[in-house]
Amino acid sequence: MLKKIDEHLEDILLVTLLSLMSLIIFVQVIMRYLMRNSLSWSEELARYLFIWSIYLAVSYAAKERKHIKIDAALYLFPKRCRPYIRIIGDIIVLCFAGFIIYTSAMLIQKIGMLGQVSAALSIPMKYVYMAPFAGFVLTFYRTAQNIWLRIAKLRKGEEMDD
Length: 162
Description:
The chain crosses the membrane at residues 12-33, 45-62, 83-107, 127-144. By secondary structure, this protein is mainly α. The protein is 76% helix and 0% strand. The chain contains 5 helices and no strands.
């Protein structure tokens, strides 16, 4: 069970968020153009779901090792050095994720103290600002996982696939 969650967490969350967002926007269009009455909260909720999906997609990209990277520079180095350079790149991503986790936690704390709420939904804004925190906690985890797998492959003498 835990293995399935580990393998598909981002997939399930992203499909759910994007499906909800599409459904909400579809209902809003139907309400506005067929019923001549729009929902006051739909655009705001769709926007917040989109924000959450963006930050969760960062984690998904880390899991799939599909982050933007400069491969051309990697091929300037000898083949035996490339796995180590990839690990160094992952460590840099890990440090960046840690920085975002720390700064977003501070921001969530400040927003929480202010008690700010959203205009249409009246939900505490700290929940919206938790998106970068959650996304980069997952990114940190996925990148650490990648580093662990790369080191394990190096120790076994296996080739790295990316």
